[in-house]
């Protein structure tokens, strides 16, 4: 095996397209130069369609978590109340950030693998009139569940005056998001998922309603002070040093996304999701998420006692050079997760399915060779 | 001119060595993989000599400012007192971060171009017994002044129980730093200066004394919570997503630094400083910093009314493909600054000096062609 041919089928980071690698390789330029300012401003503007906003998209040097925190520290003050929808590990992270700053958190928890529905949220908010922000996770990476953000936004709008703040880290750029139309106030995401970049950048967009709140509040942190980013962005720059090589890459990613077109990108991800799910079903491996709430970017499988997911992952990696993800927290060692996102196409899904079949045989688990591949191929044929 | 041959002679970002570019180009790997953990832990350990510490060095996805903020939010609480040594734009940044969190700031200000001396600090601290942390800038990039950190540390130790926290962003890796021996409690730096990387990483090391304080305090922020980094680092990882491609590059930077050796690196920078200063003197361009406090990594020149520094910079860039820096804040348009740091060697100094001479002639300023180059060559000859 060629060590440098390792195939990433985890839900981020995703493989970097060669032309993006190439773009990041450009000679360094000063981040206060006009050349960089022009690139930065135009690239930020090109991100708007993926958020579904006519407002500014801010580019931050930091991880997705830094953007989650940014959405908290600019909109709330200690002692104020927030509702956090917790359907897995990343919903819980929002809660922890809020608690760090002394914000009163109301958790709406559902079992891992389930989605937060509009009905549940409506009931939950009914007796909490003081909630000033509702935090939700679009794609819960830890379980492969995609929460119904559009419907949840409607509930928030109808039932409260709270801001609706969404972590879209592991799906934005691969799924529909119309924050202006749906009434979502803040959307954050990261670079290493559907945006096909290395880790290191986060993106955030805020609604007019959100800005009205932000303008009234004192930011609780410094590096993540959104008003400082807005002020600098008016001059096509950032308050603190931006990650220049990643922005070079991002501009090339925008070229790729525009060439394919967002509707086609969304369809490709839905197709890969349907292929993966059909394959796992054909291999008798139970899926964690219901069809209705299945993430377009990552599929979680729960083999129960049929085989050890960690053994499967080991063989996949050592014998077939493909990396898939395991479970997090209480699901560690119990599930496996297949990423199908970003620089990934239907033939790649066939490849990972074939490798899973082989690996299952190698660890002595029952698996009909080719059965999963065939099921996925059939799904693909209905789309060509 | 070849657009991609633009030469950066600004005090960061500095040019990226081709072998580091190459290293950053490696295929993406999972940041929770054992492969990355091993690389991350060993690379962090290789940074220790540049800080002069036997303790851990933490690697953060963020700009230098994020690390400055990290040093504040883990060591102080609102209402507590700090002394901030302000000798330019970056000293002032420490003060602003402290004030954002409600920390009481005592500023020790000196005119831009001067250093904070041990005597001044001793007098300043004498009537401020409640100060819990003293913040200083090692190299003040905005003026080209290098503050005498070793002597300042001694004063802090003798006169108070405060922590001594140092911003070494624009010099660490190019100058001596022995934080353990000198009694410095926290040192922070960034990736895009002497470490020859793109922007996007920051490094921080803390003393045992600092950790005793940190362990007693509640962190004021989330992403920058140092205790979370320590906990994850014990497992060779980070609490939030690290910037993987930059860490690939950093490992290769460590190879380069170790091949040259720190004493030789320090000598090279001192030589480039002395060459640059001799050249400017030969061209009758006044220097901002005194010899005793001149930065090894950046030289600031104040031409008074002899010529317009902005015109010089424009011609240098448009005709000679070399970028130097202008002034910041009240020195904007009044000074120019030459970076000689990182992937830069004595012959590069001769090149930028030659280009400055040409440009001065092109803007009608008096300059003897070759005079600056010759002065720099003479300095170089005494070292070979």
Automatic annotation (TrEMBL), chains A, B:
Location of N6-(pyridoxal phosphate)lysine modifications: 193
Segment forming the signal sequence: none
Binding-site residues for substrate, renumbered to this chain: 337
Gene3D superfamilies: Aspartate Aminotransferase, domain 1, Type I PLP-dependent aspartate aminotransferase-like (Major domain)
GO biological process: glycine biosynthetic process, by transamination of glyoxylate
One matching Pfam family: Aminotran_5
Coiled-coil regions listed: none
This protein's name: Aminotransferase
Species annotation: Brevibacillus borstelensis AK1
């Amino acid at each position: 095996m060629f060590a440098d041919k390792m195939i990433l089928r985890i839900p981020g980071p995703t493989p970097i397209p060669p032309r993006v690698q190439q773009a990041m390789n450009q000679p360094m330029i000063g981040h206060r130069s006009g050349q960089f300012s022009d690139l930065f401003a135009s690239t930020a503007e090109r991100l708007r369609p993926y958020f579904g906003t006519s407002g500014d998209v801010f580019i931050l040097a930091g991880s997705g978590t830094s953007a989650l925190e940014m959405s908290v520290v600019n909109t709330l003050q200690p002692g104020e109340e927030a509702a956090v929808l917790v359907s897995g590990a990343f919903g819980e992270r929002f809660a922890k950030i809020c608690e760090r700053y002394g914000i009163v958190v109301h958790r709406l928890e559902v079992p891992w693998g389930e989605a937060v529905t509009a009905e549940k949220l409506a009931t939950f908010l009914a007796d909490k009139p003081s909630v000033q922000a509702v935090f939700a996770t679009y794609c819960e990476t830890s379980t492969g569940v995609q929460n119904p953000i559009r419907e949840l936004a409607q509930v928030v709008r109808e039932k409260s005056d709270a801001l609706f703040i969404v972590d879209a880290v592991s799906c934005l750029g691969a799924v529909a998001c119309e924050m202006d139309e749906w009434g979502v106030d803040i959307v954050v995401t990261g670079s290493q998922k559907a945006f096909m970049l290395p880790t290191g950048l986060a993106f955030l967009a805020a609604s007019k309603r959100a800005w009205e709140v932000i303008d009234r509040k004192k930011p609780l942190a410094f590096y993540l002070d959104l008003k400082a980013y807005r002020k600098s962005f008016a001059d096509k720059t950032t308050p603190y040093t931006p990650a220049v090589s990643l922005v070079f890459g991002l501009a090339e990613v925008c070229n790729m996304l525009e060439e394919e077109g967002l509707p086609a990108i969304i369809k490709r991800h839905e197709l890969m999701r349907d292929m993966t799910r059909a394959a796992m079903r054909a291999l008798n491996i139970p899926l964690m998420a219901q069809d209705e709430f299945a993430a377009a970017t990552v599929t979680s499988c729960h083999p129960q006692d049929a085989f050890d997911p960690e053994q499967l992952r080991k063989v996949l990696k050592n014998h077939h050079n493909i990396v898939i993800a395991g479970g997090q927290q209480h699901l560690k060692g119990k599930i496996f997760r297949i990423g199908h996102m970003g620089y990934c196409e239907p033939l790649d899904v066939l490849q990972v399915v074939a490798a899973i079949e082989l690996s299952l045989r190698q660890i002595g688990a029952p698996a009909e060779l080719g059965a999963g591949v065939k099921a996925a191929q059939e799904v693909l044929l209905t789309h060509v």
